[in-house]
């Protein structure tokens, strides 16, 4: 993506996005609802025309690809099916437009676990089954690039695990895999790299590990009957300290050992001390907090 932009009327959906998705790893594409993930993916696939900038796959825009199913596979809208066609015929029709042999249809149906449902009409599929069929379609041309928009949507726990393994296997074969989600924890289990956007702009382009480390550092949580005194001791030693709502202290940039030693040296009792690593959800909220378009009321 190079300076990719898109507006709908007054609404800026994608705002000067630039990033590259590399082969050999799963890249999570994250952002709160309305951040612009689907719009970006649609522009990559040539389904929406960019207002500015460009999106290319292996250096070419989608419309310049010959037999595109063999270059890039996408799952953009699992419900986008011909309802009366059987799963088999849906895939066969796609295969025939891209000179893909019939045998590949059976192969992908087996790969996604829909062999037994091959003759059923896609219109009767559950959300999870439709998702599997969408993934089968994406894999049909054995493409080196895969784009999946919210693929775990509607899948049961077994399905979620299945897709996690599948995506990692595909990346391990050297493919480029971009998978969007608004579920941070799920993405962290699947992806090694993250592109995070908010309000159409790039917020982070980093490894999962680095994302958590930089966005929400870990801290030592200490429970003491003398928080004021311990706070002074720690502050004097140069450690940033915050008091949590339950009275416990959160000490940043410090090892638990050091906190314990300082408390002991000043005779401050410690009831409990624990290192807390920020959860991915916290890191995500911290980074995207101001870029959330829709949020629930209350609080
Ligand atoms: N066809 C359209 N017409 C008008 N506005 C649109 C259209 N498509 C998207 N938008 C707006 O553009 C913004 C980005 O939407 P988009 O669907 O790309 O976000 P998203 O990150 O995929 O969100 P979600 O996680 O909810 O799927 C939103 O404000 C949305 O309302």
From TrEMBL:
SUPFAM superfamilies: P-loop containing nucleoside triphosphate hydrolases. It holds the Pfam family ABC_tran. The keyword Magnesium does not apply. Gene3D superfamilies: P-loop containing nucleotide triphosphate hydrolases. The keyword ATP-binding applies. This is ABC transporter ATP-binding protein. GO terms for molecular function: ATP binding; ATP hydrolysis activity. InterPro entries: AAA+_ATPase (IPR003593), ABC_transporter-like_ATP-bd (IPR003439), P-loop_NTPase (IPR027417). Keywords: ATP-binding, Nucleotide-binding, Transport. Residues 1-224 form the ABC transporter domain. It comes from Sinosporangium siamense. It comes from the Bacteria.
């Amino acid at each position: 993506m190079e300076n990719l932009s898109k507006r709908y009327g007054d609404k800026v959906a994608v705002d000067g996005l630039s990033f590259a998705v590399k082969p050999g790893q799963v890249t999570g594409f994250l952002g709160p609802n309305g951040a612009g993930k689907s719009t970006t993916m649609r522009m990559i696939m040539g389904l929406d025309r960019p207002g500015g900038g460009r999106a290319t796959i292996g250096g070419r825009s989608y419309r310049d690809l010959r037999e595109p199913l063999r270059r890039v596979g996408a799952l953009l809208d699992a419900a986008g099916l011909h309802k009366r066609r059987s799963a088999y015929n849906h895939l066969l029709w796609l295969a025939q437009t891209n000179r893909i042999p019939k045998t590949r249809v059976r192969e992908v149906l087996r790969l996604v676990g829909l062999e037994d449902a091959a003759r059923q009409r896609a219109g009767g599929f559950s959300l999870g089954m439709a998702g599997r069929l969408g993934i089968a379609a994406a894999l049909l041309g054995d493409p080196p690039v895969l784009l999946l928009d919210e693929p775990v949507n509607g899948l049961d726990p077994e399905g979620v695990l299945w897709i996690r393994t599948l995506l990692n296997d595909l990346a391990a074969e050297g493919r480029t895999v971009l998978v969007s989600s608004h579920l941070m924890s799920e993405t962290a289990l699947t992806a090694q790299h993250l592109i995070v956007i908010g309000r159409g702009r790039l917020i982070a382009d980093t490894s999962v590990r680095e994302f958590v480390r930089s966005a929400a550092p870990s801290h030592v949580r200490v429970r003491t009957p003398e928080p004021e005194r311990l706070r002074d001791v720690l502050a004097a030693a140069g450690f940033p300290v915050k008091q949590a709502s339950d009275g416990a202290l959160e000490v940043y940039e410090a090892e638990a050992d050091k906190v314990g030693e300082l408390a002991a040296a000043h005779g401050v009792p410690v009831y409990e001390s624990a290192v807390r690593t920020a959860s991915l959800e916290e890191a995500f909220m911290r980074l995207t907090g101001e870029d959330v378009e829709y949020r629930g009321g209350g609080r």
